[in-house]
Design a protein that fits this description.
It is a single chain. The N and C termini lie close together (11 Å). The protein has a single domain (19-186), classed as Muramoyl-pentapeptide Carboxypeptidase, domain 2. It is globular and about 50 Å long. The protein is built from 6 helices and 6 strands, in the order ββαβααβαββαα. The strands form 2 sheets. It has a 4-stranded antiparallel sheet. Strands 1-2 form a two-stranded antiparallel sheet. By secondary structure, it is α+β, with helices and mostly antiparallel strands. α2 crosses α3.
């Protein structure tokens, strides 16, 4: 298990040892079968689950982050570059700090907050852990999410044992402070 957050970076050359593809997006080969199983279980329940983002290299994250910084500056021309970077960094990780670089994080179905409460989001919130996936940023509080906004579409594969343990801790609840990164720090000794 690899730890990454706003303060702990992956090297520029870091990448998953093998790649597979899901809905046309690269993902770590480690998550290929669990992801297919998750998608099939959703389909069996009448829920369509589609990968809309997967593995992203360091260099790709440079482009992604810079795009969002430029969007912030276009929206509010009074922002300095640093201010725009700070705003963008609440929803787009700086290069080297993105879980997508691990290859084990996927965005599912939508990148819009309106995804919250949809049948697909509700099904994923109830069943993703059965397949080893957890919400990385489950809270409506930036501080609780390590500085990132709530992303009901962003799931990371951590394996069934950790995912089920997080579920037993009710990590999606807004009334406690359990998140994936807190779990990895406190229960797994990673940082």
């Amino acid at each position: 298990m690899t730890y990454v957050d706003r303060n702990t970076a992956l090297s520029q050359s870091f990448g998953p040892p093998g790649l597979a593809y899901a809905d046309g997006f690269a993902v770590s080969s480690v998550i290929e079968q669990p992801l297919l199983s998750l998608k099939q279980a959703g389909a069996n329940a009448g829920i369509s689950i589609k990968v809309i983002s997967g593995y992203r290299s360091y260099d790709e994250q440079v482009g992604t982050f810079n795009y969002w910084v430029s969007q912030e500056m276009q929206t509010d021309p009074s922002l300095t570059r640093q201010q725009a970077e700070e705003k963008a960094n609440t929803y787009s990780a700086r290069p080297g700090h993105s879980e997508h670089q691990l290859g084990t994080a996927v965005d599912l179905n939508s990148l819009d907050t309106s995804f919250e409460g949809t049948p697909e989001q509700q099904w994923l919130a109830q069943h993703a852990e059965e397949y080893g996936f957890v919400l990385s940023y489950p809270k409506n509080d930036l501080a609780a999410n390590g500085g990132y906004m709530h992303e009901p579409w962003h799931f990371r594969y951590v394996g069934r044992a950790i995912a089920q343990d997080l579920k037993s801790l009710d990590y999606q609840s807004q009334s406690n402070d359990w998140t994936l990164n807190k779990y990895l720090r406190e229960k797994c000794g990673l940082s």
